[in-house]
Amino acid sequence: MNDIFKLFHFIKPYWRRAVAALILLTSLVIMDLTIPRLVQTIIDQGIYQHSQDVVIRTSIIMLAISLLSTLIAVGNNITSVQVAESVGRDLRDAIFTHIQSFSYGNLDQMKTGQLLVRLTSDSGAVQRVFQISLRIGTRAPLMMIGSLILMFNTSPQLALKLVPLLIVTSIVIVFFVSRMEPLFLRVQQRLDRLNNVLQENISGAHVVKAFVRADFENQRFESANEGFTDTSVRVMRFMSTMSPALTVFVNIGMVGVIYFGGLQAISGTMTVGQIVAFINYLITTMTPLTMMTMLSQTWANGIASAKRINQVLDMIPLVQDQPDAIEMPVNNPGRVVFENVGFHYNGASDEPVLNKVDIVAEPGQTVAILGATGSGKTSLINLIPRFYDVSSGRVTIDGIDIRQLQQDSLLADIGVVPQESLLFSGSVKDNIRYGRPDASDDEVISAAKAAQAHDFILELSQGYDTHVEQRGANFSGGQKQRLAIARALLLKPRVLILDDSTSSVDVETETLIQDALADQQFNHTTFVVAQRISTVLNANKIIVMDEGQVVAQGTHKELLKSSQIYQEIYESQLGKGIQVAQDDPIVSQGVS
Q1: Among 94, 178, 87, which residue's Cα sits nearest to residue 129?
Q2: I need a surface site. Which of 17, 395, 481, 494 has the fewest CB within 10 A?
Q3: What is the predicted pLDDT for the residue at 396?
Q4: Which residues of the chain fall short of a pLDDT of 50?
Q5: pLDDT, position 294
Q6: What per-residue confidence (pLDDT) applies to 584?
């Protein structure tokens, strides 16, 4: 329950409408409670007294109350829906905004499918709780309390006889409500699993198709779907027993009123009108109880979802600005230094991913990082923009520990082209200037030319205004990589990071891209992660990594002489027997 209360501050901006909805609801309850008393008047003072005027006058009052109640109910529905929808919108905004503040480490802890469920299904469940609370959820307890008071006012003796029945009914309701929250929590967890399988399958559809694994994926989805269905059925089966059980208590109460009330009427201590009014009050007492058990499904679902939403909102970003963080100094040269750096992923492994790494990248240099898969290349470069924080040691830019810099300021000076070149729905032009929305068309074209993307863009149906499908589905891997490089170059970054970002282009295009990078008018320090050794031949410094450590560093010719690992990589890709000489044909041709 505390989890749902923690989200009540989302209703604060709309408190006036919320209060108006509650006032309207209270007025509606008062009017509903007057109806049984008016029925008593018609029976005792109208029918038994043979007074047609009382019957007509009271009937007109009842009709007027009914019409007014309808208008009030409409007003309550409108205001409660407005408040609930506004709260739902703000809640989704808050979750999404908080997710944007997550570091890579936070995103490693929560899967995409789980976050999607919290943004959609869970936020919708909490929104329904707010809406129901301002409508039926508040009306039911008010009706019950008001009816109990009027029951005692009508006949204290008869009301006391029904107190045990009301206590037993309340105990049954508490039992059902207490069991429902964990049940709905399991349903949402099953939904998480279903969404994870679905998200993985859709994003990896090409792999599934290529490896003819559709049957396997169908079975995996069917298993997750069956688990979700079975859990939902168990919850609904449990819920379905509530209404019949409470109906039995209502019927027992009515029989008790008729029996004991009939005895009092025979003895002359109670009128028929009072019995009818008492039955109506009993129904308006028990019906809200039944209604509240039905609403408990919404509440239990909402409480379970609120707990899951709070897990996201309470998650603290692993990478945060220090209180005294400063902005990146302007026009500094861009000297990047790794000093005895160690790193591991949130303690997920006893062995560090990086260990005692020392690297110096001088301003304007191109530093290439080479190594086998799993050697720590991507982990290394992810530390420069603070996607993760170092576990030991430090990374500095121009002598400043990057942990002392404001993240936005740091990232504004770093251009990153990741391994997977992700494009967004929109135009080609919008994708290139994603990091600089105010960039001019000339700047966009200049960046595209440097990335060797200009020519193929002009061949598109609408050039730079061509629509990009979701995740760039209408572009090849090489085209997406070149657009991603153009997007990074448009920032004119002080530090440029290329994480195997030319793996999908041919060697000739790769050479043109690197020549264009070298000719850029702005000075930048470049880190290049590569699998192909041809990519790194002309780098100012080549870092060879193995099992999270720097095992060698130097130029191409220096490493051919001094590093056995580099020699093995070189020979495996470019052939054996190549002599290390000034006239090395590969080097002299400027292959890069």
Answers
A1: 87
A2: 17
A3: 94
A4: 577-592
A5: 63
A6: 47
Give the helix/strand (H/E) hosting 551: strand 549-554
The pair of three-digit structure tokens given for residue 442, joined into one six-digit string = 């000339």
User: For the structural domain made of 2-313, what CATH number should be given?
Assistant: 1.20.1560.10
C-alpha dihedral (269, 270, 272, 274), degrees to nearest 10? 160
Q: Which of 247, 32, 65, 68 is nearest to 140 (CA)?
A: 32
The per-residue pLDDT for 359 is 92
Indicate where the chain has its CATH 3.40.50.300 domain(s).
325-413+494-509+523-576, 420-492
Highest CATH level, class, for 325-413+494-509+523-576? alpha beta
Question: For residue 546, which phi and psi values (nearest 5 degrees)?
Answer: -150, 120
CATH 1.20.1560.10 residue spans of the chain: 2-313
User: In the block, which residue shows the tokens 């269905």?
Assistant: 229
Which secondary structure element, helix H or strand E, spans residue 396, and what is its range?
strand 392-397
Cα–Cα dist 544/560, whole Å: 12
Length of the chain: 592
Q: Is the Cβ–Cβ distance between 37 and 277 less than 8 Å?
A: yes
Cα–Cα distances in Å, from 100 out to 63, 95, 402? 55, 9, 20
How far is 473 from 453, CA to CA, in rounded Å? 17
Identify the architecture of domain 420-492 in CATH. 3-Layer(aba) Sandwich (3.40)
For residues 409 and 495, is the Cβ–Cβ distance under 8 A? no
- Residue 253 is encoded by which pair of tokens? 């109460």
